[in-house]
């Protein structure tokens, strides 16, 4: 038998618990139950914080989506406006060239 096996056998050997061990365990378990049930408001508060955080997160996501949609609409409107302005500028340039040609050819 190797040293490891001997150490393992020794570690797993049955030993009697110290006196009063059962009473200490029971006292701690009762103490633990009392401690956890004494503050139910803490669990309620934590749940409220989580719910409110979730609501705020969803609202922010919706607002972000609306902002992105408005941005896209603005970009489309600016593209259309730019296109119309280029058309008007081209027409004005044509009119101006005709006026210059008329003045130079009386």
Q: Nutshell version of this structure?
A:
By secondary structure, the chain is mainly alpha-helical. Helices cover about 85% and strands about 0% of the residues.
Number of helices: 3
Helix content: over 70%
Q: How many beta-strand segments?
A: 0
Structural class: mainly alpha
Q: Can you walk through the features of this model?
A:
This protein has 106 residues and is an all-alpha fold. The chain has 3 helices and no strands. The longest helix has 65 residues, at 40-104. The mean pLDDT is 87.
Feature tags:
single chain; 106 residues; mainly alpha; 3 helices; 86% helix
List the SSEs and their pairings.
Blueprint: H1 3-11, H2 21-37, H3 40-104
């Amino acid at each position: 038998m190797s040293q490891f096996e001997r150490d393992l056998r020794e570690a797993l050997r049955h030993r009697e618990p110290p006196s009063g061990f059962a009473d200490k365990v029971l006292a701690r378990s009762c103490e633990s139950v009392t401690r956890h049930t004494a503050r139910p408001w803490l669990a309620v508060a934590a749940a409220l914080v989580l719910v409110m955080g979730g609501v705020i997160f969803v609202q922010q996501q919706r607002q972000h989506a609306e902002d992105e949609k408005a941005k896209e609409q603005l970009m489309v409107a600016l593209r259309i406006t730019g296109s119309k302005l280029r058309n008007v500028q081209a027409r004005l340039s044509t009119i101006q060239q005709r006026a210059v040609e008329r003045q130079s050819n009386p």
